[in-house]
């Protein structure tokens, strides 16, 4: 058993974690601080122990929020954050920077904001194409040796990049988007992770809300919501994708579960080495997601889900061209 799973077991973490981004970043208006703190408190009380944040979320505000909410509980939880991508205070622009000196500086700032002396897992949020992955990973490895982090992670990278990274320093986990309607890890990354003994942490396992049925009309999403710029949510593609969702909703209704729970159970059935980290602003949805941990699907149900929303059926790429330019993961071609 890897140190990743040993630590999760040590804090009695469910096999579903909590992505904290939504509270401060990505989906329109920011949740008011008091409400966000209450939501994180409730998440801990209902059993969540694996909390995931990043330097860029809310331009560092999310780390500060998580640090405040979880102060005094540090020994009871698994805390992960990310570096290498940040918002420049002067310009408000997103900057990818994987230079060793930048990663060290960001790590030390993350520790301060999160009110802790170490992180259980620290990811390189994006590959900096100007910096060899070996240099970035080597710098994170030195942070492990200094006790500032317990494990090195990578996010949105290809199997090829993972192999190069592992040759430099052991990688604990890779974070990648993985869900019923985003199956890119199945191209090559998942096999590479298993060959190398690396866990796969699945972000957006509910398809950025699509797999819950919450997004009725993308045109009504708030200004600033990242989904407004994603091709799958466009006026051209979304009606087609909604038809695919209706198949999932009908199956969920037949099984007396929610579509989101069914999507999480499908992902968990793909392997014990896959840890979904759905994000939500709502404690009720947090509770609903966590309940999927005990949901077991029979082979017939899994076969039906496998045949739904396959890459050739989904309309639209997962990212716009500009967003895709920063991503290193393998893509399907048809």
From TrEMBL:
Transmembrane segments: none annotated. InterPro entries: AKR, Aldo-Keto_reductase, NAD(P)_OxRdtase_dom_sf, NADP_OxRdtase_dom. Keywords: Oxidoreductase. GO terms for molecular function: oxidoreductase activity. It comes from the Bacteria. Residues 16-308 form the NADP-dependent oxidoreductase domain. GO terms for cellular component: cytoplasm. This is Aldo/keto reductase. It comes from Vreelandella sulfidaeris.
């Amino acid at each position: 058993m890897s140190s990743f799973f040993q630590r999760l077991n040590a804090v009695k973490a469910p096999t579903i974690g909590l992505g904290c981004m939504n509270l401060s970043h990505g989906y329109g208006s920011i949740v008011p601080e008091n409400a966000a703190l209450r939501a994180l408190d409730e998440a801990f009380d209902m059993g969540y122990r694996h909390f995931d944040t990043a330097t860029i979320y809310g331009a560092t505000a999310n780390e500060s929020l998580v640090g405040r909410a979880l102060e005094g509980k540090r020994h009871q939880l698994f805390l992960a954050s990310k570096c290498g991508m940040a918002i420049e205070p002067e310009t408000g622009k997103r900057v990818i920077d994987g230079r060793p000196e930048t990663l060290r500086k960001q790590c030390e700032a993350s520790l301060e904001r999160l009110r802790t002396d170490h992180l259980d897992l620290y990811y390189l949020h994006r590959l900096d194409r100007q910096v060899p992955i070996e240099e970035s990973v080597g710098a994170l490895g030195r942070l492990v040796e200094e006790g500032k982090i317990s494990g090195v992670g990578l996010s949105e990278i290809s199997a090829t990049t993972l192999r190069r990274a592992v040759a430099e320093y052991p990688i604990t986990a890779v974070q990648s988007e993985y869900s019923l309607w985003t199956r890119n890890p199945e191209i090559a990354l998942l096999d590479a992770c298993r060959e190398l003994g690396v866990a796969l942490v699945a972000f957006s396992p509910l398809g950025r809300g699509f797999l819950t049925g919450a997004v009725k009309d993308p045109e009504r999403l708030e200004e600033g919501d990242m989904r407004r710029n994603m091709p799958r949510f466009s006026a051209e593609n979304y009606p087609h994708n909604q038809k695919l969702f209706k198949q999932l909703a009908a199956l969920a209704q037949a099984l007396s579960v929610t579509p989101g729970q069914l999507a999480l159970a499908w992902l968990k059935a793909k392997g014990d080495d896959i840890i979904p980290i759905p994000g939500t602003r709502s404690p009720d949805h947090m509770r609903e997601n966590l309940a999927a941990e005990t949901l077991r699907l029979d082979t017939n149900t899994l076969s039906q889900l496998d045949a739904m929303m396959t890459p050739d059926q989904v309309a639209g790429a997962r990212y716009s061209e500009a967003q895709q330019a920063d991503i290193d993961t393998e893509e399907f071609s048809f």
